[in-house]
Amino acid sequence: MSTTDPIFETDFMREMLRQVRALDSYGVHDGKSVEQLLAPFVLSKEARSAIPILGDPDPVTLSRVRAFYNAIAVLIEKECGQMAVPLVHLSHEGFGRVIITVGKLLVLDRALRDAHRFGFESFSKMKTEADKQLSVALELAGRFPEVAGF
Amino acid sequence: MSTTDPIFETDFMREMLRQVRALDSYGVHDGKSVEQLLAPFVLSKEARSAIPILGDPDPVTLSRVRAFYNAIAVLIEKECGQMAVPLVHLSHEGFGRVIITVGKLLVLDRALRDAHRFGFESFSKMKTEADKQLSVALELAGRFPEVAGF
């Protein structure tokens, strides 16, 4: 790995890499650089709008949605020391709901729309989004420790 | 309806009936008695074990799982005056997770196993189970009103 961008040294991006590697059961992507492995998460506006939103999103796209929220759940768990359980629920045609629970507390609850087009404009935007969601979740867990530890 | 069993006059069974009727978009079951409409929820031990647990449960069985938890969510909502959102998530082969959230509070969180065989030994057992889950959920909502109202 000859990566120089310091963003790949952050906890979140390291965890994203772990999540993506975990999906690669057959080692198809062995030898690829961090950028190459995480590249599918970056979509320009043009690339996004070129993706049709017909039917259900394909399993590979879904596995990326899961990787993103799994990574956030892992960081929540690390930070607050309690199990964080993610659940990505797609109802139909790319609509759905993502939740992360800690004890009896819903630390993250988001509606999914157009999951077919899941992606971020840049690695930096992806990290910013994850950081934002992480801090809201940790703030909630800190505010209601009794519920989070239930 | 010439029903005499007083169980059908309870809030829960009335709500179950409403849920089942809501699924019947084409009026196929119009004219059926309450017992007939709710009959598929009752499975003897023998009938249960005769159902194979291969592959994913069929959509009709799933709609019954949803009807049961929707009914519980409606009663939670009635009782505590706040929106209760059910989510039935099947991961694979009849395994899954059912949650009901009120605000940021997880008032119900259950693992689903062998959803293919979803059913109860009798109407009375079904109602007892629902009452139990309802009272646990309401107890939680009452204990953490700030989180439920978040």
Give a structural overview:
The structure is a homodimer. By secondary structure, chain A is α+β, with helices and mostly antiparallel strands. Chain A has a single domain, classed as Protein of unknown function DUF269 (Putative cytoplasmic protein). Chain A is about 45% helix and about 15% strand. Chain A contains 6 helices and 3 strands. In chain A, strand 2 and strand 3 form a beta hairpin. The mean pLDDT of chain A is about 95. Chains A and B meet through strand 2 and strand 3 of A and strand 2 and strand 3 of B. Chains A, B: This is NifX-associated nitrogen fixation protein. Chains A, B: It comes from Uliginosibacterium aquaticum. Chains A, B: Pfam families: DUF269 (PF03270).
Biggest beta sheet attributes of chain A: 3 strands, antiparallel
* SSE arrangement of chain A, N to C: HHHHEEEHH
CATH class placement of chain A: Mainly Alpha
**Tally of helical segments of chain A:** 6
Organism (chains A, B): Uliginosibacterium aquaticum
InterPro entries (chains A, B): NifX-assoc_nitrogen_fix (IPR004952)
Pfam families (chains A, B): DUF269 (PF03270)
Protein name (chains A, B): NifX-associated nitrogen fixation protein
Q: What would a concise description of this structure say?
A:
With 150 residues, chain A is an alpha+beta fold. Chain A is built from six helices and three strands, in the order H-H-H-H-E-E-E-H-H. Chain A has one domain (6-148): Putative cytoplasmic protein, CATH 1.10.3100.
